[in-house]
Request: fold
Amino acid sequence: MMPARLYQTTEAERIMKRSIFHPTHPVAATALCIAGICTVASVNLQAGDIQTGRYSMFSMAPTQAQADLLATTVTIQLPARIQIIGEAVRYLLQRSGYRLATLESTGPDTLALFALPLPAVHRHLGPMTLHDALETLAGPAFHLVQDPVHRLITFARCVPERVAVHESVNKADAEVIRDDD
Reply:
């Protein structure tokens, strides 16, 4: 059995009660809270951030849309005067920083695409990236080709085998249906 001992205050406890750093002292608690907040704030502040106000900080790096112009999110309602795909592509590129490649450097398939009438479903596009909007206008038979140095855009026909595979699958389905009859 342990002998019962009366609680006696040690010298260290007496000093702690008189000290300003005692945990129950209000000034010490406030100082600890402020130090903790400063520590957390300094951890969240990165080298590329700048504080512009008490509660607002901005990154000093370009946004994704500023770094990659085709990554800009767009929502477009095409005007009624735009009737063909080529006009719609030019309209989308107006304030993008890109332009359409010259007609001399554009292939005959792409020129034929640009002359096609604009589908009614493509009159309202977005919200989507500019890249996706351009590829939507071109359709699955074409892919977007960009020259980031000269900021030029054109389209190229997809590999014929890739389009032919899709058509052959549809023909195979049709043959299976005919065989069942």
